[in-house]
Amino acid sequence: MKRDDLRPYLEREIEVWSAKSYEALRRELKEKNLARCEMGAPYHLEVDLLEDKPDYLHVSVAVCSENAKWSCYYPLSSSFIVHRDGRVEKPVLHAGAKA
After folding, report:
1. Looking at the predicted structure, is the pLDDT value of residue 85 above 90?
2. Secondary structure tally for the chain: helices H, strands E
3. Would you tell me how many other CB atoms lie within 10 Å of the CB of residue 31?
4. What is the reported pLDDT for 94?
5. How many Cβ atoms from other residues are within 10 Å of residue 19's Cβ?
6. Domain count of the chain?
7. Is residue 95 over pLDDT 60?
8. pTM of the model
9. Looking at the domain assignment, is residue 98 inside a domain?
10. Which of 6, 1, 24 is CA-nearest to residue 93?
11. Is residue 97 part of a domain?
């Protein structure tokens, strides 16, 4: 497995998490990060709240795979910002681009 093989998983998770409201993200990530590491799953996921500001949240999403052991030491990751007013700033991810 190559690093870019993880990109579709990262793109999917960025879409899922950035679609959540400011309030929902704050509630889910305020006390702890989310880590999903199931044996046999195609990828592992970690979601962290980087910044918790009154007007926005900055969230990091990272994926790795047990099929590529190196990726768990150096996961493919990106971040996005969700504003309290509902605006979302997220990266444009595509093959060949650095996340």
Report:
1. yes
2. 3, 5
3. 7
4. 59
5. 12
6. 1
7. no
8. 0.87
9. no
10. 6
11. no
